[in-house]
Amino acid sequence: MKYKVGKPNYKSSFIYSALIIAWAVFLIIYSPFSGMNICGFMLIFLIIFIFLPSMAFCKNIWEVDEHYLKYTFYDSVVEKSRAFFHSLFTRNIDYQMKIKLDKIMCIQVTYEAVPMLFYGTNGYNVIFKVLMKDGSSFSFQPIVTRKRKEVIDAIEFLKEKGIIFKDRYHILDQLDKKEPLAYYLEKIAGDRK
Known about the structure:
This protein is of the alpha+beta class. It has two domains: 3-90, no CATH class; 102-192, PH-domain like (Roll), CATH 2.30.29. The chain has helices at 10-30, 34-56, 77-90, 148-160, 171-174, 181-192, and strands at residues 3-5, 60-64, 68-73, 97-100, 104-115, 122-132, 137-140, 165-166. The chain has a four-stranded antiparallel sheet, covered by helices on one side. A four-stranded mixed sheet has the order 7-6-5-8.
């Protein structure tokens, strides 16, 4: 059994890309201006190498199976594009971090403030801090998609495998509620001040 959070969404990204490519081909064929031909070719290039991989892949992907917790993070469009084409041809995702479940001591659930577009405003990300039995640790964002059920199922599977979650802010209890998690995190941050 394995659970993957942030699964690549190939089908919808191909559909959207095909529609935009059709529009670009329409520009190339029916435009009397040669400048529009160049614009159409550039649009097709951008769609295939930037837009398509960005739509198909989440920034973070993590997976848990019987023995490992695997995680990967794509920092740039180039990395995301490379991973997209690699997974497209091999049907396999290369994870940057692979941790044996029996080496994990516990997972602390916390959050961090993230500066947003406008001055003085913050958004909040949920963070899993994985503490290892050897004293090392690493952190990642577990909620990478709007599909909270994927996250809840993966967390329940980790709990079944004996992984202890330390959640002093009760963030995990809020995952299956209809209220946006950002409201709850903002309330916690306001109470701490």
